[in-house]
What does this fold into?
Amino acid sequence: MSTRLQGSLMVDIAGTWLTAEDRHLLRQPQVAGLIIFARNIESPRQVRELTASIRAVRPDLILAVDQEGGRVQRLRQGFVRLPAMRALADNPNAEYLAEQCGWVMATEVLAVGLDLSFAPVLDLDHQRSAVVGTRAFEGDPERAALLAGAFIRGMNTAGMAACGKHFPGHGWAEADSHVAIPTDERSLDEIRAKDLVPFARLSTQLAAVMPAHVIYPQVDAQPAGFSRRWLQDILRGELGFDGVIFSDDLSMAGAHVVGDAASRIEAALTAGCDMGLVCNDRAAAELALSAAQRMGVQPSPRIARMRGQATPGIEYRQQPRWLTAVGALRTAQLIE
It folds into this structure.
């Protein structure tokens, strides 16, 4: 039985089509995923053509996007403008609307040939973190878990696996991990009582989890995504989570605490991440790839669980299920 470390990379590309250099990168066996950003997107048709060209190079790649709703929505032109999750909570039938929202999001993402959106956000809105804010369903952990669970049901019904983020909760730390190294000074018991609740309640419904680039100094000196204490002892051990662990983007400032891109991918995979994201920096991606090759990593079999389970035809907007879901969101004035 092999004892080689399991792990792989998720990378990105610069434009709206593949270059020869992109194809070379995607053929490397240590690369198992690709994430697209707004710069890669012009229209639904163009995204379908792009994903088809990627699958022609590597049919097994997991193709992802951040399509949470609100301000974090990469697919815009020709797609439903989804509400921020916090807007759902104020409705009397919030649970039903959350499920419809999850279904609509997943259907549109799957229809252009992508496998998953990194959603839902399970962070709590403590009215402290500007980077979380309205991306969170709620400040109350039980209600956040209820609404996120409904959103996940919608995603799953459409054929998409769910990824909860940012474990164990980014809502208390005030700094933005995209540009700084946030800290959360609370004790593990305080975090367990609040921010861990949605992850614990939904641990069997989540196919994947993305840890936060936040340091919780009372628990571990390393950010959660580089911490065996958080990923192995607490997430896998205490919560019994057996899904995929995706690192958050290792190019973010919150990840720089452990060194260069080679050090970051090594730290993330060694701590227990199944896939490390290295985005918006091709030189860093190539450095991380060289490190992964040197480490002799092989992709985790868990990654296959993230593959989309349906590909809606381009006529999905004529289907009764679509009309019902969009009608409900429109009636609640959550979409135009």
Notes: The CA atoms of residues 1 and 41 lie 43 Å apart. The chain is about 35% helix and 10% strand. The mean pLDDT is 92. Strands lie at 8-11, 31-36, 62-65, 67-69, 72-73, 116-117, 163-167, 208-211, 244-245, 275-277.
